[in-house]
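The authors assume throughout that readers already know how a fold can be written as discrete tokens. In essence, backbone conformation is discretised, so a fold becomes a row of integers matching the chain in length. A single example would do more here than another paragraph of explanation. For illustration, here is how one protein appears when written out as sequence plus structure tokens:

…
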Amino acid sequence: MPPKHIKYLIINILLLIITQKTNAQIPSWAPPKGKFLSDSVKVGLPVKYALSYRHKATADVFFPDSTYNFAPFEMVKRDYFNTVTDQNGSLDSVVYTLISFEVTPVQELSVPVYVRAKRDCTRVFAPMDYVVLESIIPNNVLADTLSLKKDTRLIPIAQQVNFPLIFLIIMGIFAIVGIIFWFFGKPIRRQIRLFNFKRRYDEFQKLFQRLSRGTEDSKKRLENIEKAVVLWKKYIERLENKPFTTFTTKEILDNLKDSRLSDALREIDATVYGGVYSNKTIASLQVLQELANGLYRERRIEMGVNGERYTVNGSR
């Protein structure tokens, strides 16, 4: 074959390849169909827009989502429908719910469909469709002659708990209490200890006096005297921080220096163990009470001067 014919043959083959490649890139399907489902739209009210696309069953297509700019509309939601495939190909469709705040008399929209290729996606736009703005105010009415429509009906609203505010209030209370204790913590703690100290003393006085008056009953005389002595020992034990409830009479006298205490304890022992009751027994109980009162006043003075120095029942 002559070289000239070979050259023409090669050119024809290249043109055929280029033509086939170009034809392969051009879709053989119709463009997507996009249409409003109503002829008019009102400002701020939703309108439906249906978009469908028939394509090859092997093609991958994508519909716009909320990131797409539907200007002059805004997308509220979208409803997809399942793909329907038959001998004519596959059909995908979606219905968008749009809303517009524009006052343009005629509002147009054309939405694309993305067809995926090997390297990127091709946008295929639907034909332009439009809706007419339906005006609430008639065109022949002047704006100056209109009056605002009032709606003063109260709408009940469910109460909600303001957790952030409650949290801030609690934190503020803790902060105030912390500041108070930072500056006045020592006096406050001392006053609390003095209050508890006085409360225990009043309880002892009340119960001890009741047991002392109970000695007038001959049937429960010895029982009440014994309970009064045990109560006295427990209270002195708390004041002195020593185990007076386990002390003998001699040990009690060694720890409490009072000239009247020896005769008082001897008289009480004679009453409890010997059954000998006299007016001296009442006087002896009075001595025990006066001794407890004196120790209470001494310890209260110590606590008032230096509340951290004195220990009551092992706790400061």
In short: The beta strands are 33-36, 40-41, 46-55, 61-62, 74-86, 89-99, 106-109, 112-116, 121-125, 129-133. Residues 14-26, 307-316 have pLDDT under 50 and may be disordered.
